[in-house]
Amino acid sequence: GMDDFVPKPVRRQALLEALARAVEASGAQPASATPDQNAVAGEVATSAASNIEIINAEVFDDLQALASEGDFSMGEMVDLFQEQGRQLLDLIETTRAAGDLESFTRHAHTLKGSALDLGAARLGAVAKQLEALGKAGDLEPVPDLLTEAWAAYDITTQSLRATLEDEADPV
Questions:
Q1: pLDDT of residue 84
Q2: Counting Cβ atoms within 10 Å, is residue 47 exposed (0-12), middle (13-18) or buried (19+)?
Q3: Using 50, 70 and 90 to split pLDDT, how confident is the model at 45?
Q4: Contact 12, 65 (CB under 8 A)
Q5: Of 1, 40, 117, 170, whose CB has the highest number of CB atoms within 10 Å?
Q6: 9, 119 in Cβ contact below 8 A?
Q7: Rounded (10°) angle between helices 57-69 and 12-26
Q8: How far apart are CA 15 and CA 1, in angstroms?
Q9: Average of pLDDT values for 36-59?
Q10: Distance between CA 104 and CA 23 in Å, rounded?
Q11: Does residue 69 surpass a pLDDT of 50?
């Protein structure tokens, strides 16, 4: 087993370093192939209103590199994020309306983690604010933040789709 810690969102470099430490501790010989650590990050879209990245290119690029080496597809990951993100936003709205602070906070936390793990920085930041309001028991500003969260969700999914399409069809 491995006795180490890799913080979320998982970044490729942090994961590779943790694996290298585990290999070194086990005495096993590491694979000879090394990843390209000088890969250039893609352009980062930013929200004019908030100045927070829509997509964190470093996180997204790290995931794409892992996907190219592994058993998952970025397209499937984005599909899952799009479906679950919509469900989580619906649940956040429903639990807010019901006054269920515990569930509201849990769903906001889940959305935050999912968004940040995929590199959806803007949506993750809004979900973090929603989570903090749930923990504080202050649901009054939530409707405005939910409007912002839906807008961030929409632009995030559009940006992710456009990024994947651009890479699938290089011109």
A1: 96
A2: middle
A3: very low
A4: yes
A5: 117
A6: yes
A7: 50
A8: 15
A9: 50
A10: 41
A11: yes
User: Which single residue is written with the structure tokens 């690029």?
Assistant: 61
* CA-closest candidate to residue 33, choices 20, 42, 44: 20
Lookup result for tokens 């920085």: 121
Residues 6+ positions from 89 with CB-CB distance below 8 Å: 111, 146, 149, 150, 153
* Token pair belonging to 149: 């969260």
User: Position of tokens 């893609």?
Assistant: 42
